[in-house]
Amino acid sequence: MSVLYGSITDTIKEIVGGFDTKQMIAIGVALLVAILLGFFIGACATYASGVRKGKYAGAKDAIALAKEKAEEQESGHRQQLQEEKERGEAMRRESDAALSAKQAALEQAEKAKAEAEQAALAAAKEKAEAERLAREAQLSREQTARSLQEAERSKAEAEQAARAAEEEMRALRESDAIIKERKKKIDLLSKQEILGYAEGLTEYEPTAIYARGGENLPDSCRVGICTYMLVYERKNMVKLVLRLHRKTAAALERQFKLFGKAVYPKGSDWYRWILSPEVTDLGIVTAAINMAYKYVYLSNYGERGDALNVNFVNKEENLINAAILKYQNLPDRDFIVASDSVEWENASYDLYGKREMSDYCRTLGSTYPIAVTESDSDLAPSTFKVGGKAFMMAYEKDGVAKMVFRVPAEKFVELKRKHPTADVSPFPKAKGYSWYVAYIDETFTSNADIEEIIKASCAHVYALSAKR
Prior knowledge:
Blueprint: H1 2-16, H2 21-183, H3 191-199, E1 207-210, E2 219-223, E3 226-234, E4 237-243, H4 246-255, E5 259-261, E6 270-274, H5 282-300, H6 310-326, H7 333-340, H8 354-363, E7 370-373, E8 382-386, E9 389-397, E10 400-405, H9 409-418, E11 423-424, E12 436-439, H10 447-467
Antiparallel strand pairs: 1-2, 2-3, 3-4, 4-6, 5-6, 7-8, 8-9, 9-10, 10-12, 11-12
């Protein structure tokens, strides 16, 4: 302290070495005041330090107490926390268990739901399958019912067809009987009849006949020195080889199946004609022979003004004779087949067939709107309509004609008395009216009988169509 005081004094002396007394006194006073102030401050500081130490000790004790209390509280709190933790753990475990149970329950519910949905889907499928099976069973029953109905209908149709077939067979048997009866009457023109007619042709020059005899060698007919016809005969059937104009030949070819170009003699105007039972009109045969006679005469004489080229004609005749000899052993199969089918005697009968029916129906066209559809087939009929409605059909087979027609019932009763073969036709099928059938047999003693039926049928159907 003294050292400090001496240091301070020395320091002061060094500082005040230049001051006067007053200044020094003033400085001293100031220093004294400063020292006093320093003591005062030190005392205050010491007091304050003691107070602070007391306070610190108190505070420390308080802190220790507070700390102890805090530790107790903390221990209690920790214990509480531990308990709460344990409770939380227990609750968590309970919650986890509950969640697990809930999850399990949810899974079980989902599984049950899925199973329920699958069961529902399976039930729906089973229901749909049952419905499908029910529909199929219903369809099967309906199809069975339809099949039964179809079977019944087919059975009825079969029975009807059988009845129709039986009726047709009966009709065919009757037709066969008629044909057998007719075969005794159909005319097959003989060679002698043909040559007899040709011999009577004298319009230009008399026909010269050169008979050779035998099945394969013909008799020839000439006008002047020109051959116009060769006549063959086999088993009572005649074959003609004629020279004809192409238009005449075309008309005959349309009408007769066994008419056509000749294999020999060579030439564009030679034609072969087998006079089978289809040739029933003697007038057509005689007309063809007459046209051949005129055609050859006019071709060789008339066009040259009677200046006949004898050398040319003789050469042509030599070729004809050479062809006859050359082809005498060549079989004409059509002629053989046609002649082999003939086993009856010659007679005469004027056939009224499909063509004649067609010709007569056309004559009714001036009174009625007639439409005629002709057929040359044995199987297909010629059909006749008036005002667009069919009134008759005509069939022809083996020289026997059959007409299917419509007339009033009372008219049919009258026809039945005159023509016993007339009957109700099993076809065509019709509702409300009947078709009738009649064979053109010996009970039809004149063409007028047939034409009367045709006209009555046409008038009847036309009157019915006009009413509608």
